[in-house]
Design goal:
single chain, 172 residues, 5 helices
């Protein structure tokens, strides 16, 4: 992430404090299907520390491991922090095929900005739950999220393409 500022942190962000919902069965199934379609064998999970975010990642881990997959690590991050650098570095340290992320909007955006600024993380190799709604994506900037895949509660998927959220094609 290139920027004129000296920090990736959001300045004066509105903090709604909202939690995400616990992922639906359809959402979990779509995350697993999207990861398998990409040939992933190992996932690294990242989440906020709210009950719903932790429950979602536990469900993803359970389904992934039941299907023979491996979880490299599960990193959590706070909604507010000085920089998120420690969490971002740990999130990208373990060898993984894909990253899966969930959590409240502001914490996710701050963590994602730190990932872009300070690590080799790639949005293209990441699947997110509904945390990444248009407002959350705007906090990061869709120009920096090319290839990010999202899964909605009904199990439908989308990808950031040319700065837009586009429904996933049937060959994914």
């Amino acid at each position: 992430m290139t920027a004129a500022t000296s920090t990736p942190l959001l300045h004066n962000p509105s903090h709604a404090g909202e939690d995400v919902h616990t992922a639906t069965d359809g959402e979990i199934a779509a995350i697993i299907a999207a990861a398998r379609a990409r040939g992933a064998r190992t996932l690294t999970l990242g989440s906020g520390r709210t009950p719903a975010a932790l429950a979602t990642m536990a469900a993803v881990a359970d389904q992934w491991e039941r299907g023979g997959g491996r979880i490299a690590d599960h990193i959590t991050w706070p909604e507010t922090a000085a920089s998120w650098l420690r969490q971002a570095c740990r999130f990208t340290t373990a060898p993984t095929d894909l990253w899966v992320m969930t959590g409240p909007r502001l914490g996710w955006a701050q963590m994602t900005r730190r990932l872009l600024w300070s690590t080799a993380w790639s949005a293209r190799d990441t699947i997110v739950t509904t945390i990444a709604d248009p407002a959350a994506l705007a906090l990061v900037g869709t120009a920096y999220l090319e290839g990010l895949t999202g899964v909605d509660p009904d199990g439908s998927t989308w990808t950031v393409t040319d700065g837009l959220l586009l429904p996933a094609t049937s060959n994914e």
